[in-house]
Amino acid sequence: MFAYVVRRLIAAIPVLIIASFLAYALVALSGDPLEPLKLRNPPAPPRTIELETQRLGLDDNIFARYGHWLWGVLHGNFGESVQSSYDIGANLARSSVVTLRLVFVAMLLALVLAVLTGVLSAVRQYSKFDYTTTFLGFVFLAMPSFWIAIVLKDFAVRYNKATGTTVFYTIGETSQNYENLSAFGKFADVAGHLVLPTISLALISYAAWSRYQRAAMLEVLNSDYVRLARAKGLTWRKVLVKHVLRTALIPLVTVTALDIAAILGGAVITETVFNWNGLGRMLLTGVSRADTNAVAGWLLLAGLVVIAFNVIADVLYAVLDPRIRHD
C-alpha cells in the first residue's frame, strides 16, 4: 500500500506541473498587472513602470517567468506580488487555514448527513421519510450555493435583531476581539462563525451525495450475496453494517474525491457572502489585479488538495473492500 501511494504521488507531479503552467499562462496572458499605473491620472512615470516591470519579471517570456516562479516555490518563495508589501506565501498559509477549516467541516457534515439519510431512505424505500429526503435533496440541488448563503445570512440577521443578541455570526471568520479571548473563547468564537458558512457549503454536497448513497445501498441490498448472508442466519444489523454499508460506501468515496474541486469553488462563493478573509478573497483579489504569482499559488494549493483527496480515496477503496489490493 505504501509503495502504491508513493507511485501515485510521483505520477501526480507531472500532472501538477502541467496544470500549474496552464493556469499560470492563462492568468499571465489575461491582463496587464501594471495597467492601473499606466491608466491613472496623471500616469506613473516611465521609470516607475520600468522598475515594476523588472520587479515582476514581465520583461521575460512566459516560460522563463513560470520557470523562475516554480523554482522559487520549491524553495518556499511564491514570487513577487503586484502589491510590493504583499507576502504571497504568508498570506497563502494563513488563508488556507481559514478556508480548509471550512471545507473539511462542511464535508464532514455533508458526509454524515448523506450516509445517514441515504441508508435510511434505502432501508425504508418508498416510506414518508424516503419521499421527504428525496424532495429536500432535489430542492437543495436546485438552489445555487450563493443563494443558500444569502438566505441563511438574511435569516440570521433578522433573528439576531429580533432576539437582541448575536446568536448567529454573519460577518468574518472571527470576531474583532479574537486575540483577546481565552483558549476556549477562541474555539467558541471560531465555531460560532463556522455555523452558517458550513451549513451553506454542506447542503448542496449533502443533497447530491445522499442520492448516490441511497442508490448504492439499494443496489447492494438487492444483490445475491446479501440474500445468501440472510439465508445463512446472519442478523439484519450485521448484514447491513458489515456487508451492505461497506460496499455501498465505495461510490460515495469516489464522488467525494471528485467533488473536492467543486467544493473549493463553492467555498470561494461562501466566503465572499460571509466576508471571510480566506482563499476566496485571495483568489478574487489576485484575478482582479492580474496578480499571476498569487493566483498560481492558489491554484497550486488547490491542485495539491485535489490530488491528496484522490489518493486518500484509493486507500479507502482497499479498506472498504478487501478484494481491492494496491500491490
Describe the protein's architecture and organization.
- This protein has 12 helices and no strands.
- It is mainly alpha-helical and 327 residues long.
- 29% of the residues are buried.
- It is a multi-pass membrane protein.
- It is found in: Cell membrane.
Q: What structural category arises from helix and sheet content?
A: mainly alpha
| Radius of gyration, in angstroms, nearest whole number | 24 Å
N-to-C SSE series? HHHHHHHHHHHH
Tell me the helix content: over 70%
Which shape, going by the Cα principal axes? globular
Output mean pLDDT.
88
Tell me the span between the first and last alpha carbons: 6 Å
Biggest pleated sheet: none
Low-confidence stretches: none
Give the beta-strand count: 0
Q: Roughly what fraction of the amino acids lie in strands?
A: under 5%
Count of helical regions: 12
Fold topology:
Layout: H1 2-30, H2 35-39, H3 46-56, H4 62-74, H5 88-123, H6 128-142, H7 145-163, H8 183-221, H9 224-231, H10 236-273, H11 279-288, H12 292-320
Helix pairs in contact: 1-12, 5-6, 5-8, 5-10, 5-12, 6-8, 7-8, 7-10, 8-10, 10-11, 10-12, 11-12
List keywords for this structure.
single chain; 327 residues; mainly alpha; 77% helix; globular
Compose a concise summary of this entry:
The chain has 327 residues and is an all-alpha fold. 77% of the residues lie in helices and 0% in strands.
